């Protein structure tokens, strides 16, 4: 049976970022997604595009163009608006000035950070965006080396900041190496994510894998596929997301041993 999916992270707009490079490639990706059971896909091109003045208008024009081409090609897949926003100190201001896109015109926004450094302004930015009423989704937390090195940040993001974590299916099926795969598995096992999406970039590289990722998630954590499917739909409707029960990070015997000695020294 083909499961009907909604994919909230993709780079399918033509010639906008490092995703689909031609109209043919955009259509080929959409066709492949539709064949796998995707009924809706959000086009979440990377922001920033510094050379473009009217980013939102530019993206909406590209989106309209792709929708027309998809319809002319006989595809039924629905293409939703969105953007994957690389945060910086100006992100809240840009939202305030209505220059950035949310997911499907809801209050949900998809954010990413530079990979190697945890931004020192992160908590201030989150505070400002939440004060403006946005529901924040963090793309592929498993890929950040600073998360791989300090997992406690994720608990803070989810439990203290109320952020939603979106795993890449590509991470879970091992397309970004073993460290990222293990981190994705651990995040899932501990019940920290709310969403999974494909982050598809093209027809030959970084290809669609949400169907495989959901299957893998279900085998690691039974029931997770249904939650991911329901939550993706909830985002498109601006509804609340379901959450897993969060488990604490399991410590290795060696870590327990060292933490026992470091705490006994304090007494
Ligand atoms: Fe992406």
Keywords, separated by commas or semicolons:
three-stranded parallel β-sheet, globular, binds fe (ii) ion, alpha/beta, 9 strands, TIM Barrel
Q: Any overview of this molecule?
A:
- With 267 residues, the chain is an alpha/beta fold.
- It has one domain (5-266): TIM Barrel.
- The chain contains eleven helices and nine strands.
- It has a six-stranded parallel beta sheet with strand order 3-5-6-7-8-9. The protein has a three-stranded parallel beta sheet with strand order 1-2-4.
- α9 packs across α10.
- The longest helix is centred in the N-terminal third of the chain and has 18 residues, at 55-72.
- It is globular and about 65 Å long.
- The protein starts with a strand and ends with a helix.
- The structure holds fe (ii) ion (FE2).
- Residues 9, 11, 84, 139, 199 line the site of fe (ii) ion.
């Amino acid at each position: 049976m083909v499961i009907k999916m909604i994919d909230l992270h993709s780079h399918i707009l033509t010639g906008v970022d490092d995703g689909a490079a031609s109209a043919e490639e955009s259509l080929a990706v959409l066709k492949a997604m539709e064949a796998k059971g995707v009924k809706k896909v959000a086009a979440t091109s990377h922001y920033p595009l510094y050379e473009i003045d009217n980013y939102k208008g530019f993206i909406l024009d590209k989106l309209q163009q792709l929708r027309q081409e998809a319809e002319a090609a006989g595809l039924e897949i629905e293409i939703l608006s969105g953007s994957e926003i690389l945060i910086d100190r100006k992100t809240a201001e840009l939202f305030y000035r209505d220059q950035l896109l949310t997911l499907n015109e809801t209050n949900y926004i998809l954010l990413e950070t530079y990979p190697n450094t945890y931004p020192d302004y992160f908590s201030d930015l989150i505070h400002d965006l939440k004060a403006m009423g946005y529901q924040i989704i963090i793309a592929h937390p498993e890929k950040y080396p600073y998360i791989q090195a300090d997992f406690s940040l994720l608990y803070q993001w989810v439990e203290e900041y109320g952020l939603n974590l979106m795993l890449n299916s590509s991470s879970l099926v091992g397309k970004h190496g073993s460290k990222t795969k293990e981190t994705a598995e651990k995040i899932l096992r501990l019940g920290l994510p709310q969403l999974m999406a494909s982050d598809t970039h093209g027809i030959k590289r970084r290809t669609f894998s949400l169907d495989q990722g959901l299957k893998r998630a279900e085998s690691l954590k039974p029931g997770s596929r249904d939650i991911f499917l329901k939550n993706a739909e909830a985002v498109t409707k601006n509804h609340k997301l379901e959450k897993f029960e969060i488990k604490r990070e399991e410590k290795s015997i060696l870590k327990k041993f060292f933490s026992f000695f470091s705490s006994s020294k304090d007494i």
